[in-house]
Predict the structure.
Amino acid sequence: MMFRWADAIGVKPVLDDIRIYCTTIQMDNLKWFFFSLPDGLWVYSFTSFMLIVWGLKFSRHSIFWISIGPLLALCGEMGQAFGVVRGTFDPIDLLLCLIGSILPVVILFSANQEKFYSNKEAFS
């Protein structure tokens, strides 16, 4: 039905060109997007969640929970590299998991830097 409407308003040739272009995209160029990015996003979201749960405070107890996601992802990937963990080692997975581990700290602390300094001055 949609293509009949597109034909009726004269945009079907444009849609056909877009469909042809999209089917010729090389899957090799997007493998990281489908296979590695989800791992990196999982580590990012888990680390962000734990940082927020612990109020962006590092303590003896919080470090364990904040680092669980990155440790599982990075150790799992290294385990694959050494044949200890089943699966295929991929350096892109390792890189995106590392980025997903560091980025939440950078983003959350820089976003809350103004709040941190304003509270610090209140206690001075």
